[in-house]
Amino acid sequence: MTVLLAAASLTSLPPAVDLVTDRASVGEVLTRFTPRWPTLTSPTIDALPVDDPNAPRTAEDRAWSEFNHHYSGLFVLAMGLLALLHRTGRAPWARHWPLIFLGLAAFMAVRNDPGAWPLGPMGFWESWAIATVLQHRVFVLLVVAFGVFEWMVRTGRLSSRRCALVFPLLAAVGGGLLLTHSHASLNLKEEYLIEVTHVPLGVLAMLVGWTRWLELRLPPGEGRLPGRLWAAGLTMIGLLLLYRES
Q1: Of 8, 10, 38, residue with least CA distance to 245
Q2: pTM for the full predicted model
Q3: pLDDT digits (tens, 9 = 90+) for 192-214
Q4: Measured distance CA(85)–CA(135) in Å, rounded
């Protein structure tokens, strides 16, 4: 399933051999994945073309998006590091790491779509008719479900094994949705450069989901390796979210 969704994402654009212009070079792709310090400043909403969703992307658009991804990356990186710390057995308090999901969800709900409620001119219910906004809000709901269920499992408030499977299932579903999530653009190269950064994030999210599933389903003592893998994968997602958009 992961391979098919990744292939669908990467082949949703015309093959490079069919394009005379708007080709992304290897160097441009590598630039998007080059590590950098997070961008912690954001342009104002007035600097964005929020009234025209089909307007070409501007430098302010990219700066807004980078700010969102970098702050989200810091949230996820913190969760991954705390999950790894908890696995050492030396920091029982680190089991509360899923609560960081709630902070991430609140941040995403406000910042994901500057043209829609609560920051933009488009009303709350009106914005649900926009496919991209709808997808973003589904992601926010998934993040909330991540945090609530996994925190209750980690703290023993939910002892059912079925409840423990909510986190890996939602991680796998969220990764699959990310692989099929697209950003329409008037420039094919820019569209590709955006989507190519989503593919490793989606694959890692599915890796986190299924390795956590294995950790829960394998006999006691045999889930240590999958347990380390999903915690490391969560950390890698946080690092990859620090990618460049320009």
Answers
A1: 38
A2: 0.82
A3: 787 788 888 988 999 999 999 99
A4: 32
